[in-house]
From TrEMBL:
Ranges for domain FYVE-type: 152-212
Gene Ontology molecular functions: phosphatidylinositol binding; zinc ion binding
Alphabetical list of PROSITE patterns matching this protein: PH_DOMAIN, ZF_FYVE
Alphabetized SUPFAM superfamilies for the sequence: FYVE/PHD zinc finger, PH domain-like
One GO cellular component term noted in the UniProt record for this chain: early endosome
CDD domains, per database record: FYVE_PKHF, PH_Phafin2-like
Name this polypeptide is given: Pleckstrin homology domain-containing family F member 1 homolog
InterPro entries given in the database record: PH-like_dom_sf (IPR011993), PH_domain (IPR001849), PH_domain-containing_F (IPR051765), PH_Phafin (IPR037871), SOS1_NGEF_PH (IPR055251), Znf_FYVE (IPR000306), Znf_FYVE-rel (IPR017455), Znf_FYVE_PHD (IPR011011)
């Protein structure tokens, strides 16, 4: 499927359309060999609440953004290399159904499809793209992934001290190592996690102690898979970077059309416009 569509004029037009929908705020997506495999709306679990996001699956990257005008305008573009992605299916729980985790070294989050069938389609297509990429590159899938953040509304009090109640003054923070919602005193340390940032990030005291113990072990035993590059940095009190706890695509700039359309995948069964054009020319020449 992908090889046949690589040089398709229809594929080039689809990618150009995606670029135009993001406008000048998005990056260039058209590259040699890149194919738009599918697109559709998924519900992304953001820090504050679940929100609809437009997703575009290419053969090498996953792109998503906020919906400003459905099928016409998107913003806050995020581009995720598929070689870094690991999927993990989620069990249905209450109102949250047909979900799975998208995990990478820098960010991990949950998404939900409208139906079980759509979930199967999305996961199958993403997994196939990842498998093809890793096979061609000979690379191994990443073994270390960022924690999935616990949503704010699931923690009325600090998940570690179990005492601090969150208010306007007592803000919620997220540990970048375990994803727990914690108070300021329980997350007063920062630690350099190279997979997530080149700056020290807020971690809870438990994770800080654990990471320090791992650093203190002899080199042959200090590393758990994917963690060898982590470095400690105590910036308590002053000099540390901002925790940057806000989810960068958490807020919508305006209300978007939330009507649901089924996802569209461009497969072998589809007659591309190129094929149709060639067929028309063949008929005309006879």
């Amino acid at each position: 499927m992908v090889d046949r569509l690589v040089n398709s004029e229809a594929n080039a037009r689809r990618i150009a359309m995606v670029e135009s929908c993001f406008g000048s705020s998005g990056q260039q997506l058209a590259e040699q060999g890149r194919v738009l495999v599918g697109e559709g709306v998924l519900t992304k679990m953001c820090r504050k609440k679940p929100k609809a996001r437009q997703f575009f699956l290419f053969n090498d990257i996953l792109v998503y953004g906020n919906i400003v005008i459905n099928k016409k305008k998107y913003n806050k573009q995020h581009v995720i290399p598929l070689e870094e992605v690991k999927l993990e299916s989620l069990k249905d729980e209450g109102q949250y159904r047909n979900g799975w985790l998208i995990r990478t070294a820098s960010k991990s989050f949950a998404v939900y499809a409208a139906t079980a069938t759509e979930k199967e389609e999305w996961m199958a297509h993403i997994e196939k793209c990842i498998e093809d990429l890793l096979r061609k590159s000979g690379k191994q899938p990443p073994s270390e992934h960022a924690a999935v953040w616990v949503p704010d509304n699931e923690a009325a009090i600090c998940m570690h001290c179990k005492k601090t109640q969150f208010t306007v003054l007592n803000r919620r923070h997220h540990c970048r190592k375990c994803g727990s919602v914690v108070c300021g005193p329980c997350s007063s340390k920062r630690f350099l996690l190279p997979g997530q940032s080149d700056k020290p990030l807020r971690v809870c005291l438990q994770c800080y102690d654990m990471l320090n113990r791992e650093r203190a072990r002899p080199p042959q035993t200090a590393q758990t898979p994917g963690q060898g590059a982590a470095k400690v940095l105590d910036t308590t009190g002053s000099g540390g970077e901002s925790s940057q706890d806000d989810d960068s695509d958490d807020e919508d700039e305006r209300a978007a059309d939330q009507s649901h359309d089924e996802p569209k995948f461009y497969g072998d069964g589809e007659k591309t416009e190129d094929t149709n054009n060639h067929s028309s020319k063949d008929q005309a020449s006879k």
